[in-house]
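Weekend entry, working from home. Most of the wet-lab plans are on hold until the incubator is repaired, so I used the time to fold the two sequences that have been sitting in the queue since the last round of cloning. Logging both here for the record. First:
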Amino acid sequence: MILFGSFFFFTALVAVLSWYFTKNAERSTNDGYFLAGRSLTFPFIAGSLLLTNLSTEQMVGLNGSAFKDGLSVMAWEVEAVVALVLMAIIFLPKFLRSGVTTVPEFLEIRFDHKVSVITNIIFLAAYAVILLPIILYTGANGLTDILDISAITGMEDRWHNIWLMVWIVGIIGSIYALFGGLKTIAVSDTLNGIGLLTGGLLIIYFALDTVGNGNGIISGYETITTALPEKFNSIGRADQEVPFGTLFSGVLIINLFYWCTNQQIIQRTFGARDLAEGQKGVLLTGLLKLIGPLYLVLPGIIAYYLFADQNIQPVEAYGKLVRHVLPKPLTGFFAAVMVGAILSSFNSALNSTCTLFSMGIYRTLINKHATEIKTVNSGKWFGLVLAIFSMTLAPFLYGQKSIFDYLQTMNAIYFIPIFSVVLVGMFSKYVPPIAAKVALIAGILIIAIGYFVPLPFIEGSPTFTKILNPFHFVGGVFLLLCVMMYGWGMVRPTAEAFVQKDVKAVDMTPWKYTKAAGLILIVIVVTIYVTFAK
């Protein structure tokens, strides 16, 4: 009873405060609904960025990877800081200068409308089939363990309990995304972000204290590092999910796409009040990501120490640890925080799909003369259909051994082509639209073939990525696409050089400490790797 009391109290508190702070927000215009009226300041940008990223595919999935491979999987958190620094210094000024609402909109300005449509379709398909179902599945999987749903429902079949939680979370998230708009999402994200950081650090405190037999967290840390020294190595082996070499190929490129060009993530930076607020918000997110391994990696290692002999799956490790170490009232609070984290990623992705459909498909292909209200409503209806589809698909992910590795691997199918086109578009002046179109389509086909099509004439018929590490493979594809586009621009350049124009959407005065703060963050990243390198 105490568990559910604390759960419902915190969940209701966030809902009420989100409504109170955004009750007068404009939701009938494109800027108001999709970009929070371009009014977001750096705390809300950072809070929303952090919690959109920190859903259960991170909490459950990354800790599950750490359960299996140890500290080396922190690459997804620590190297993200490098990408965020580049976002603040290079990418964000270019996006804000063009005053765009979506990434495909930027590509339309740089190339042409067809490039924008192709990119919109890729984003929408990927979010529907990959991102949204994984968010719902990992969230439901974690909550099933934390709240011990099987004991509540009386259903012993885990799949049925996951199915139930997927639909409960999906329906609540859809209400936030479809009726609240970006400002409501940003505020609720920030409130839940405070709770998530607090709860995540509490897990570490109680888990280490449990390992130390009540003698404190230092004793617990010394016990676990002595017992499992091989788990505290920042250098990933070749047989692990994140081998060290991939930090300079596929893992780096995926991080750059995710933090610099992924619509679901960067849409809140497009809503910044001005460039300086956007840069401060992005860099604050980078600072907060540096402590991510504490609650996204270390709990997985502790779970291995406690439960390795119990034959549990990596994806079950985090939920089991939470239920094992947290007092009941705090378990309810943390379950509420986890729901907030799930809702954050789900409603942010759903809001982004609404934005992509409304601005990139409905207004440009279906109803070119639509009013702003009709444009917003078209996104809401599309989002509703997509939410139902995702809730139906999510439970069928049951059985994946490493859901986080599966997520990153599948994401690369569309991450790599889109990022290559955005990057070349930003830094070239003569690459023609046809080169971008070929890169988008060819990139997806090459990566999909490398993942799924068996190689002929080789014993066992493995796929290409069974021979070469998948992250090295996608890194090679990225390089190939960039070289192809630049080569096309040299052989068949556009008649005129592309010149980006400042549409004066926001004040473009940069924050004066952006470069200094970025340098400090990168130095800390290198220091962390050197400290734990074995």
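Second, folded right after the first finished:
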Amino acid sequence: MSFVIRNLALRSLYIKNYALIEEFSVTFERGLNIITGETGAGKSIVLGAFGLLIGDRATLAAIRDGAEKAIVEAEFDIAGNPSLRGFFEANEIDCEGDALIVRREVSRKGTSRGFLNDSPASAQLLKELSEYLVDLHGQHEHQSLLHAKHHIRMLDEFAGLGDKVKEFQTLRAKLIEIAGEIEAMKAREARLKEEHDLYQFQFEEIAAVGPQAGEDEAIEAKLRVLENAEELRNATGAIEELLYDGEGSVAEKLGLVKEQLSKLSAVDVSLAEPLNEARSALAIVTELSRGLKNYSERISLDPEELDMLRDRAQKIQRLKKKFGGTLEAVLEKKAELVEKLSFESEFEGFIGAKEKELSEARAKCSSIAAKLSKARKESAGKLEPQIAIVLKELGIEHGKFHVWFASDRADSSDNLALVVGNELLRANAQGVDSVEFYISTNTGESPKPLAQVASGGEISRIMLALKTILAKSDRLPLLIFDEIDSGISGRVAQRVGRAMKALAQDHQLIAITHLAQIAACGDAHYLAEKSATKGSTSSRLRRLSGAEHVEEVARLISGDVLSPSALENARALIQEVTGTSLPVRKQRTSAAVV
């Protein structure tokens, strides 16, 4: 399998208590990093541990015997990755500087914890991050190259269409938005039309009564007076008799008081003040009596007026009961009905304006989709022969590469229908094109989808060919290849190694290999090895020196016995690739040199 790390480079990897690995930390270099080792030495274990970092399922079997917890941690360089920054912001993850540290811990208690720069992260979040961070390439269904959904992105990167695709996606989103607004308006218009008669009836019902704010309270107060008019008139008349008109009234007695005080104040001037108060009291009683008389005379005993007010109160009460319980609710309902009935007449204008806007957006989308489709087909014509040439260099002598295009037809009722050329096609997220890579690896065979290519070695070489051609536009600076040498040897392996060496000029590569021809191309060489101490076996990765690099390449050529000729062949193989002389380490007499 292979891992592809997008827009970043792997700086280091730390593993503790995972499977056979007790503990080690390794730093990777720029260029081509080679990993070799005996079968079972731990190369696949390293990849399995790495898989935990991208959200793979954690199991207790992953924990080393005798340990309580397995830990895997990697540091990535994320400089120049704005999309990854957006992911961090959306998930409220702190990420200062250019380093991203991803950590996963698996406990024997059955728990698993993930961290991004010390912030807790669920396995699901790590999986989501992998869309920005890691693309897992494995054999068959696990290899993203076999999923056609990725092919159009690869073609667009080769063609340099990223900005144009983003422009299209923005317009397409606007097209969907406008179409949604029109559908919502039409649905609302239909509902209003269905309910028009009801709305009109309700409006006319309220308008016929014509209630005013606070009118119900005013009528209620007036009814209390009219319904008790006779009692009020009799009572006020009696009070008026007591105050002024009746024999021995208050006014009469206050008059006598005033006269007596007037005489007495002539004798004693200190009674002048009580005299003034008596005069004021008499004036107040007189005015009160006059007011009550006027009130009594104003009271209506008209039964028709009483009936009229009772009738209006009943009408207002019916409206209140029907439209919310209060007069304020009735008046709000009336305003709402006015808006609905008036808005209905404006729908035609609103929908017409939006449909014009939709037509303009569709025209722009159609224009860009047509340009994208044309550019893709032109670029496919350039990509196909280039891939075929690289495939031949990689040992697929009769390889034919083909970019297959398809589009979905649409009808005029489809909101995503675009006019491209003379056809009505349905827009997808990238335009109107669906793209899939086809290949044939043998003479006389017609190209078939990559998913039908059975050979893992061929799949790896096809991916290597694509990466070689797309190197300048590819946004994936780190590639980790496993089983790239499956099914190849000799001259083809040497070609694959050279292709990887060239690819490493633009990318950081990590390649796990069993072939000397590929190992010889490495800028840095790591050995997966096992050791046994006190009845316990442990695996690790160890960086080899220049001389050890020669010996390991020689061992891949001839086996454990490092003869002078094997070492000389290894040096020659490495010098042919690097063009530099190599250090020679004094060979030990042991057959197995480490």
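Plan for Monday: verify the second prediction. The radius of gyration is 47 Å.
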